[in-house]
């Protein structure tokens, strides 16, 4: 199995001494229980005393704690971390085979692992085995896309409100005639700054997940920021048209109402552009 770059996940709480033999076949993640922890400690001690001339070196054994009520949930709760540690951005030879011991193959498990590119499944005497193609081992999953999107939006909105509030507070202490001018320009650039910082934070999160996000992040950020301007114009015109339609065709002279709604709308859409372009570039490099 090691030759196929596989990973074992043991969610059998009483697996115990069988862990030693399993560790010689591949990397193992085992649920941390008193019985399993004692067996893992013996393997860790053996690794320190390993003599290359006598026996093959045992692979790394990692224990993880879980409060999940079932072996299935324990697997699913920990799997994102497991995939991160053994995937293409953490390992020179990323795993493509997953063998689970201690829980059966269910539709819920297949659906969850399918998010990570696994498309071949078979039950075994002790659990099940899942396989994914090498080219899909770098998949930017829906879960990570969604989490990165919400991280970006949160940072954007916090920065946008903070910058806009700071600008308005500063202008209010100056010439009051400048307040209206700075409200429009300040809000526009506050949203632009917020988007840029949101992309940076999101890119940092993705970098921590071992994506090759350097070049992808830079190009996706520049492209998304360029779309900010036409998107802002489009949303502004749409809200102006909506306001005029609501007021029987009366022409809007001051666009403050439309601006207040256009800025947050752009901040909701631009991260989608950024993450979609990021995903395309990551897929191209995979």
Poorly predicted regions: 53-58
The oligomerization state is: single chain
β-strand number: 6
Strand order of the largest sheet: 3-2-1-4-6-5
Task: Please give the largest β-sheet.
Answer: 6 strands, mixed
Measured as a percent range, the helix fraction is 55-70%
Shape call: elongated
Order of helices and strands: EHEHEHEHEEHHHH
What is the typical, i.e. mean, pLDDT? 77
Structural class: alpha/beta
What's the number of helices? 8
Strand content: 5-15%
Give an overview of the whole structure.
By secondary structure, the protein is of the alpha/beta class. The protein folds into 2 domains: 2-136, no CATH class; 142-285, no CATH class. 59% of the residues lie in helices and 10% in strands. It is built from 8 helices and 6 strands. The chain has a 6-stranded mixed sheet with strand order 3-2-1-4-6-5, sandwiched between helices. Helix 1 (19-23) links the parallel strand 1 (6-10) and strand 2. Helix 6 (178-208) packs antiparallel against helix 7 (213-246) and helix 6 (178-208) runs parallel beside helix 8 (256-285). The radius of gyration is 26 Å and the shape is elongated. The model is unreliable at 53-58 (pLDDT under 50).
Q: Brief overview, please?
A:
This protein is an alpha/beta fold. The protein is built from eight helices and six strands; from the N terminus they run βαβαβαβαββαααα.
